[in-house]
Amino acid sequence: MATDQLFTVGQEIATSLVSCGMLPKVWEESLRASKAESFTLNEYENVAYVTFPSFQRLEHYLVNEGEYREGNVQTEHNFFSGYLMGNDDKPALIHQGALTLFLDIMEQTDFQEKIYTDATQRQLKPIIFVGHSLGGAVATLATLWVLGKRLRSDSPFCITFGCPLVGDQRLVEAVGRENWGGNFCHVVSKHDIVPRMFLAPFESIVQPFTTIFPYWQGINVSDSVIQGACRALLNHVLDSRSSPVLDSPSSPYRPFGTYMFCSSSGAACIENSSTILEMLHWTLQSQETSFDEIVQACLLEHIRYGFVLEEVIQNSIRGRRLANPSSESSYQMGISLELEAIGVGAEREDLGHALRRAGDTEKERKTNVHKLAIELGQKQCNMAELEWYKEVCEKKHYAAYYDSFKNQNDKKDIEANERRLKLAGFWDEIIEMWEKHELPSDFQSQNKWINAGNAYRRLVEPLDIAYFYRTADANKNYYSDGRHRRHKVLQRWLEDKEKTRSSRVQRPRTKPASLTEDTCFWAYVEEAWKDLENLKEGQHQRLQSLEQFEQYVTNMKNALRISSDVFLEGSSFMLWSESWEEYKRDHSP
């Protein structure tokens, strides 16, 4: 997507959602579910709506666990099966109250049964998860669960209203890695405080939120008390902006998905997480609205999304006139449309700067991918030269290229090492850029890079293993002590992608793999040698691991997943196999 299209697309998404009439219908569904204990499941016009109530208990919002009331999504439960992990391989943190509610629904209701039934009986009918306030957070988790389980032939969609932030940056990374952002639409009114309150330090919001919460339940509270509490809560959220949002945040919570910001002027959709984060702060402020009016709006807009949507629809019908029609470019015009739709005015330079920065960031990420693609083409020469090296070792010297490289007896082995290092540098650069968020959020799920990374690992990791066992201490294990992170990351990218292909029928191989599929195979051979030597010295506990390795090789061989060079006479594996068979003969009953 070109930069000058970035924000017009946000306008198109907002217009589409409003014009189709879905949002008011979904909001009505949310109101109907407000008295439910856990969830409701209704079907209208071949669409299934799974709706979660707002959950009218204060302790669900203000739980007492964690500095920011966050919970580890992997702790004691396996509903998310390890896929909600950050780029650092650590599990995402989720708001503990929302997580507890979700787990209770999963374990104590028939929710799973109904969703599985829906998945098997109504595969072609869309399903929409809906929730208001904390119910939106539970709807978000339910959607993530269905997405992760790959239960449906089509993807579920999630619509929330006034939903508090659900998780941290690792959750944002996991959603981006799986390319799930488009499955979420979070509707946020311009001044609703709930989607923003977790941006403030948690201890600062407990007292004012405790005072405000009964008002939303219909309990009479003194106007002056409510206004004072809402003013305090608003100030704490605004004050949290004073700390650098990205560099030294006062809160770990981060947005993901599409955010539809609504105001009396219309609506606009934004997908960039960093920009959404800034918009959540800035849209609370207005040069045209007094602070007292903003305080009142913070209180009312959270429970009046029906009125908010009516205004959005009316403005969508009437259309809007740009305040700055003489803008120099469609890019600038797109920014102006977004700002006016949110109701802050195109004259707000700080907001315009945030949107421009988001556009520039996306453009830079796409430019980085283009440059890497060119470099990948150039690095294919190094890959081809290593493939030639492998072929020469096998056909001319009758040796596995792993053993030849480990011995380093020839000039060709030295040259192969140089190419190994060049390729390592290239993939290290890619992973570093990915970890710094300098590449698109779905980069690691794109087939081109998945396939290129897998081809690199299968050809080159055996050389890294050979180098390790040539140079490392004898008691070191490659898999635990020497495997480079680049291989672990590239393997995880492949495994994550394979989960999305799990429904496809895998054709059995008809001939042996040209490269052994398990890139750590030679490390297992080296460790099997150690185990065999230790077994001969009386360490009988090694027998079980050797038998397991033997069975592993048999399974790999039967599945044709081992390349033929492994079985060349004189290879490390064949020498081990001969020694192992000799040991078994000598010690047979």
Calculate the terminal CA-CA distance, rounded to whole Å: 71 Å
Strand content: 5-15%
What would you report as the Rg, rounded to the nearest angstrom?
29 Å
User: Roughly how much helix do the residues carry, as a percent range?
Assistant: 55-70%
Total DSSP helices? 23
Average pLDDT number? 83
Output the structural class. Answer: alpha/beta
C-alpha geometry: elongated
Instruction: Give the low-pLDDT segments.
Output: 1-10, 243-248, 318-335
DSSP strand tally: 9
Placed side by side, the strands forming the largest sheet appear as 1-2-5-6-7-8-9
Could you describe the largest sheet, including whether it forms a barrel? Answer: 7 strands, mixed
Could you explain how this protein is built, in words?
This protein has 23 helices and nine strands. With 589 residues, it is of the alpha/beta class. Strands 1-2-5-6-7-8-9 form a seven-stranded mixed β-sheet, with helices on both faces. A two-stranded antiparallel ribbon has the order 3-4. The longest helix is centred in the middle third of the chain and has 47 residues, at 349-395. Mean pLDDT is 83; it is low at 1-10, 243-248 and 318-335.
What attributes characterize this protein structure?
elongated; 589 residues; two-stranded antiparallel sheet; single chain; alpha/beta; seven-stranded mixed beta sheet; disordered N terminus; 57% helix
